[in-house]
Write a structure and sequence with these properties.
By secondary structure, the protein is an all-alpha fold. It contains 14 helices and two strands. The protein has one domain. Helix 5 packs across helix 9, helix 7 runs antiparallel to helix 10 and helix 8 packs across helix 10.
């Protein structure tokens, strides 16, 4: 009898925590400020590369943008759940007309694939293939080499066409239009940054802009950003022996909140990934507190370590 009462009370507290986390949303102005600052931190590498010009700093800017660029890409995840802003239309505009074209993404198709992932995770119908990649021992180095050679980007591009893409003619047209509008504006802004760093030298301006756009930005997305995205998915869902929850061939985990881990892998709530899958209507900034409250009575939601910790176990398995 006492046990039954305890379970009911725990469930009630969990329900109250979820409702509070879902309802208590921060202002759109604050969200815009956070996302704008994040854009500055990530894309600042591209503009700094354009201003300084090609040289020994170029690989550092490539590493900076390519590694942290996946985190800003995850703004789209917050938007497809309509959680970045309180106003649904603002989520749509931000994702479709800024973030998605910067990553050459069809946002509507991404949203369709992602919701299918939520419904079918761990089954053969799950469109998310990357967490199934085997990274044990030498396979990890092969994955890194292949991705740096842009094999991962080509695989993603080939997968996201045809029946796998879940795109429509309308979504394809809209994404193409957004890219056609946003990319020239982005290129112009890079040229302006290069011009500021090379006043009176148009040859140096164009060279600096080309390297910033082609190497730091373009190759950064096609190599390091794709690698980080792949490793994040593997850490989140690929079984690693002892897992809190496994459904089909997918594990569900929460991760520790170290600053580096959150900057690279765990941005916008992805450190609390098991909690997100259970409660997808909770905004990312509310997930850490919700996880803390629920994990007190549910051991399956206790963080298992950082993404780096889980990946290390998977590689050495």
């Amino acid at each position: 009898m006492n046990g039954a009462v305890a379970i009911t009370e725990d469930s009630s507290r969990a329900d109250e925590s979820v409702v509070a986390a879902t309802v208590q949303r921060r202002s759109d102005l604050r969200s815009a400020a956070v996302i704008g600052a994040h854009f500055g931190v990530v894309f600042g590498a591209v503009y700094a590369a354009a201003w300084i010009g090609p040289g020994w700093t170029t690989p550092l800017f490539w590493l900076w943008f390519g590694t942290l660029g996946h985190g800003f890409h995850l703004v789209m995840h917050e938007c497809l759940h309509k959680l970045a802003f309180r106003t649904p239309a603002r989520n749509e505009r931000l994702a479709c007309w800024l973030v998605a074209p910067l990553y050459f993404t069809d946002f509507d198709a991404l949203r369709n694939r992602h919701w299918r992932h939520h419904r079918t995770v761990g089954t053969a119908a799950d469109p998310k293939y990357s967490y199934r990649i085997d990274v044990r021992r030498g396979r990890f180095l092969r994955l890194v080499g292949e991705t740096l050679a842009m094999g991962g980007a080509l695989r993603k591009a080939s997968y996201q066409v045809g029946g796998h893409s879940h795109a429509s003619r309308e979504s394809t047209r809209r994404s193409a239009l957004a890219i056609a509008i946003v990319q020239p504006i982005f290129v112009l802004s890079i040229v302006l940054a290069a011009r500021l760093g090379h006043p009176g030298d148009w040859a140096g301006t164009w060279r600096a802009a080309a390297v910033a756009y082609g190497v730091v930005y373009g190759y950064g997305i096609a190599s390091l950003t794709v690698l980080v995205a792949t490793l994040r998915a593997i850490a989140e869902h690929r079984p690693a022996g002892v897992d809190p929850v496994v459904h089909g061939d997918a594990a569900f985990r929460n991760f520790s909140h170290s600053a580096i881990d959150r900057s690279v892998f765990g941005t916008y709530g992805f450190a609390d990934h098991a909690t997100h899958h259970r409660y997808p209507a909770v905004p990312s900034y509310a997930l850490p507190e919700l996880t803390r409250r629920l994990a007190a009575n549910d051991r399956t939601l206790v963080p298992v370590g950082t993404h780096f910790d889980v990946l290390a176990r998977q590689v050495s398995a």
